[in-house]
Amino acid sequence: MPAKAPIKKSPAPKAASSKAQPAPVPPIEPVPEVPAAVPEAPAPVPEVPAPAPEPTVPVTDAAVPVPEDIVLVPDVAAPAAEAKKAPESVAEAPPPPPPEPELPKEEPPSEPTSLSVDDVDDTSLSVKWKCPDKEGTAALDGYLLEYQKEGSVEWILVNKEPSVSTRYAIKELATGDKILVRVKAVSKAGISPPTALEHFVQIREIVDRPKIRLPRYLRQMFVKHVGEAVNLVIPFQGKPRPQVHWSKDGQPLDPKHASVRNSEKDTILFIRTSERKDSGIYEVTVQIDSLEDKAKLEIKIAERPGPPKSIRLVDVWGFNAALEWTPPSDDGNSEITGYTVQKSDKKTGEWFTVLEHYHQTNCTVSDLIIGNSYFLRVFAENLCGLSEKATVTKDYAVIKKPDIGYIPVEYKERDFTEAPKFTQVLNDKSTTTGYSTKMFCSVRGYPKPKIVWMKNQMEIREDPKFRTLVNEGVCTLEIRKPCPFDGGVYTCKAVNSLGEASVDCRLDVKVPQ
Question: Which of 159, 237, 336, 349 has its CA 20 to 30 A from that of 362?
Answer without folding.
Answer: 349
